[in-house]
Structure formats: structure tokens, C-alpha cells
Amino acid sequence: MSIRKLALAMGFAAAAAFATVSAEAQTELTFGHVGEPGSLFEASANHFAEVANAKLAGTGYSVATYGSSQLGKDSELLSKLKLGTVDFALPSSVMSSVAPEFGVFEMPYLVKDREHMKRIEAEVFWPQIAPAAEAQGFKVLAIWENGFRHITNNVRPITVPDDLKGIKLRTPKGEWRVKMFQSYGANPTPMAFSEVFVALQTGVIDGQENPFAQITSAKFQEVQKYLSLTGHVYTPAYITVGMNKFSSLPENVQALLSEAAKETQAFVYETAANLEVELLQVLKDGGMAVNDADKDAFVKASAGIYEEFATQVPGGKEMVDKALSLAN
């Protein structure tokens, strides 16, 4: 082979090697969540990815989002975080199955509004609840939102707890939501979010409870008659990573991702507040019969859940008392 041909061959080989190295150097960090197109979860995850990728430019890392349970349901995503096969997830109520302390956010009518939630985050979540998640191998980077939850069903309007008697109601997989609806007289059925539409459509369950953003993005208005504005629970969402996998990333990448997660909260809260107004109208326009609920009656019927949480969860009473004291 001539020197010229050898040089050309070496040049091509070097270029190919460089391309391979460059491709290998760009590492995709996967973000799985259960939100459907148009949901608050989708908007939150996509905004985070945009902010994070701008910060990560030149680091060799990027974030890609996968919604609609593409990478698994909530419980599967938590398992994948620990295994390191998914990098980020956005669990909500399911976190009470990870550490009992998260159950404080299952207490009905605990959180009054987002400003109240910010105070709870600062004085209850980060000091007491986040460490409980880390003890189980999970790190929460920031608090986002799932939202204020309302009941839909095909049997009757829900005005007081007694109206729930005998209704088969889907709940997330968290023990306190199940106990709460049992105490109201409903027949709660824990079920993955991705399975709910068909279960409602076929009559396997009568109803479900979720924030407006989840109801509309999943098109539950197509298979539900009644929307009752109970606002019974405010559920945060937690942008969560597996401790081992996250710790293996370069420290500057960890810092940039943490910054992006916290910065995204303002976008999430603003978007959520706007959606509460817009999406209620969408549900009304979709033909749902909307009614107000007697929240005082629900609060009164919830006393037993507070008592049980206080006795069963170490530090439960102190967390609840602290959260309630921050309301004003």
C-alpha cells in the first residue's frame, strides 16, 4: 500500500474512531413518567428537560423524556430507578409505599394552597421526609405537583361522604388513600393509572379521583358522568432518582440537574394554577355534571385517618401538627 493510501486509510480510521468516541460520550439520561399528552406531568417533565439540557451543553449528557407509562407504571419506574435502568421518574402518591412518612400528603385537606405547600416543603419535607426516601435508595431532587384531587364517577354526584357508599373507586397504590375512602364507605381499588380508562369504560370500576390535569389528559370525561369538586387531597409530585445511579454521575452534572429540577418548580406551580381554571371548563364542555361538595362534612369524616396516621407512623403526629400550623 502506498504511503498516500496508508495515510488516507489511517485518516478514515481515525475519523471513524473519533465519531464512535463522540457518540459514546453523549449519554442520554431517561426520564419516565405516567402522564399522558397534555398532562401537567408531561409539561413539567418536558420543561425540566429543556432547562436541564441547556445547562448540560458540553458535558456529554442530555435528558430525554418518555411519558404515557412507556418505561413502566409508577411501581415499575421506582424499581428501575434503583436498578439504574431509568434515571428520573415522577412518582406521586405511590411514594407512601416507599416510606411511610410520605403518607402525610395523603391526609385529607392538609394542604390549603401552593404557598402553604412551599412552607411544608421547607419545614417538613426536606428535614424529615426526604431522608426517609434516601434510606430506601431514592433521592428527591425537587417538589413538583400532581394537584388537588376531585372525584368522578358514573353513579351519582358526591356531596357528602355517605354518597360514596358502595361505589367502586380506583385509587393509587398507597395505603392511606385506600383507608380514607374505606372510612367514607367507598370500595377503593388500587390500580395503575394506565389501566383506569378501560376499567371505567367497561364498568369494572365506577369512578376515580385525580386532579383536573390527569382527568382531562386521560380523557376520563368520555367515560364518566359526574365530577364532584371535593379537593380532598393535594398530592405533590417528586422528581426522583436512584441514589446509586445519580451518585455515579460527575459532580457537576449532579449539581446542574438538581438546579434544573428546583428551577422547574415555579413553572409547574404557575402552569398548574392556570390549568385548574382552563380544564374545569373543558370538563364541563365535555358534558360532565359538576357539583360542589360539602368539604366540612368530609373534614369531619376524616378525623379517624389523622388519628391512625399519628399512631402508626413514627413522628406522624408531629409532622401533621407542624404542617397544619404552617397554614396561615
TrEMBL record:
Ranges that cross the membrane: none
CDD domains xrefs: PBP2_TRAP_Siap_TeaA_like
Signal peptide as annotated in the record: 1-25
Keyword Glycoprotein: no
Superkingdom per UniProt: Bacteria
Predominant location category: other
Any single GO BP term: transmembrane transport
Alphabetically ordered keywords of this record: Receptor, Signal, Transport
GO CC entries: outer membrane-bounded periplasmic space
PANTHER family in the record: PTHR33376, SIALIC ACID-BINDING PERIPLASMIC PROTEIN SIAP
InterPro entries membership: DctP_fam, TRAP_DctP, TRAP_DctP_sf
Name of the protein described by the UniProt record: Tripartite ATP-independent transporter DctP family solute receptor
Cellular compartments annotated: Cell envelope
Family named by the database record: Belongs to the bacterial solute-binding protein 7 family.
Keyword Transport annotated: yes
